Each structure stands twice: as structure tokens, then as C-alpha cells.
Amino acid sequence: VWSLGWMDSVNGVGFLKELHVKYVCSLRKSEGSFEHYLLDHKKMSGVYWALTALELLGGLDEFLQSAEGCGTVKDGLVEFLFSCYDEEVGGFGGNEDQDPHLLYTLSAVQVLAMLGELERLDRDKVVEYVVSLQRERDGAFSGDQWGEVDSRFSYCALLTLRILGCPLRETVRDLDSAITFVLRCQNFDGGFGCIPGAESHAGQIFCCVGALALSGQLKRIDAEKLGWWLCQRQLPCGGFNGRPDKTEDVCYSWWVLASLVIIGKQSWIDGKALSDFILRCQDSEEGGVADRPGDVADVFHTYFGVAGLSLLQHPDVTPIDPMFALPVTTLESLKLS
């Protein structure tokens, strides 16, 4: 089932690579649009989704070097990133004049890694910020100074530190308790929730599996049970849902499949059916990928659709690393594995 034998098209429509590049590039000039206002509070993540999609599609370098104002698009993006940086705290916000948060600090670090500009960071300050958000009582990480806890933040913290080249055992205040918190989020069905006792969800599973993989603790997962839960997310349409009795959504092409790849169970799903579903979600007129066929495309689902095809080894998409959520080319430049 995993051997795809790629077909050129689904219902006469192939992979619209160039159209997707055009769509993502057009978002740079979308200020004032409906989508712009929807993403305004998390623009940092939007930049990460857009640039990663472009890199996977082979269009990032040309986009970054295109002229903008008195410089290039790359210059403008770097300026935006640091306009969201809190020098006093060491973290990044989702947009200008927003409080720093682990989610957006990770996105900023990932983007700077792709741009080859990590050296501009005060690494020690960012590391200090990330490490400071671990709670002593249970090892969990808060997302920000206000104290919300979610297993996503454990992944964000550990991944940020790994990208910055930090050995986790020597950097995290209490790595063992951080791992223990993630494991406490695992349920009887093999999945993981946002906190201990919460419902299993594919997005949380990805974060927990990623955190355990980053810390070298994958062996503590029941891969058979978890793999079974994950492969049950595939529906007759070929797409995945995020939990039982929910509809399919392109974003789970990443959350579910990346988790399966990390635990070595990707052959348990029908890869061709999934790829066909993603291709049916393309906008054949304007470009981009929607959550499901017939809906409006957006940058979030475009990134996750393209990333899903990358994990499926589509010949027109460059490889992405499922644990780091970064193009393999970026990891090679950073000498990370």
C-alpha cells in the first residue's frame, strides 16, 4: 500500500506545483484581505507555514531575493521577525506588540533557520527564556508567563533548543520530569492528549511523539497500540480525521502521517488514497490547498498538504523531516539529525 507508483493526476488534475508557489508568494501582498485579518494574531506562524511550503516546492530562494522596497523580501521578513522579539525576555510574539510565547518563538527560530540567519539571535537569551517556562511541580512547559500548560509546549520547547544546538540533558532544568509529563498525557488507547486525562488527538500525538523522539525516549511508546489508533484516522475518502467521529481535514495529513513515520508505522495506511485526497483539495484556479475538496484554500492547509505529500515522497516535493518539521536541506545546513 505504501508503494505509491505516482499517477500524474486525480480526476484530470495533477499536482499544481507552480500555481501553489504563485499562491503562497501572493500572500506577501495580501494585507487588508480577509485571510490577513484571520491570521493577524499569529502572523509568525503564518510566515513559517508559507516559507516552509515554498522551500518544499522549490520556490523559496527566488521569492526571498525578489525586490521589495529598498531591499529584498528576505530583508523585510528578517525585519518583521525581530520586530516581534522581546529583547528583555528573549521570546517572540505572534506579531508586533504581542507578548512572547513558546509557539511563536519556535516558529521564529524555524524561520531564521530556513533563512540562514540564526546567528542574528542572542541564543543564550532565547534559551534562557525557553528553559524558564518549565514548571517545577510536574515538568510541564507553560506557553508563556501566564501559565497555560499544554503538551504542545513541551514539544515547542525541546525542538527550539535542539534547533539552537543545545544538548537537552545539559540544558533543560529537569529533562526527566519533562519526559514524565509527556508520558502522563498518554491514554489507554495509545494516543496522547493536551494534559493528563485529556482526550487523544492527532495534533497532540504528533507533539508528544516529537518530544519523546527529540529526547531519545521513543522506546517508551507502545508503537503498536499508537500506530493502530493513528491508522484508524484514515477515512474512506483517503483523508485523515484528528479523532474518532470527526470529518477529514488536510492538516491531519501532517499530524497523523508524521507521527506514523516517526514510530515507523507509515506502511499501515493507504498512501495513494491519502495523496489522492490531498490533490483533490487543491484550488485549480488560484492555487493553494483547502481543508477538504471544494473549500477555500489557505496558507495553513497549503503547508500541511504539501508537507503531507513530502512525507509521501511525491517526486515534485522536497523532503521534510517529520521530527523537526523543517526541510531536510535546512537540517543539513545546520548539521542536525
Task: Please name the defining characteristics of this protein.
48% helix; two-stranded antiparallel sheet; mainly alpha; two-stranded antiparallel ribbon; 337 residues
Separate helix tally: 16
The largest beta-sheet arranges its strands as 1-2
* N-to-C CA distance: 28 Å
- Low-pLDDT runs: none
Radius of gyration: 19 Å
State mean pLDDT (0 to 100 scale): 94
Helix share of residues?
40-55%
> How are helices and strands ordered from N to C?
HHHHEEHHHHHHHHHHHEEH
Give the overall shape, derived from the CA principal axes: globular
* SS-derived structural category: mainly alpha
Strand content: under 5%
Major sheet: size, sense and barrel closure?
2 strands, antiparallel
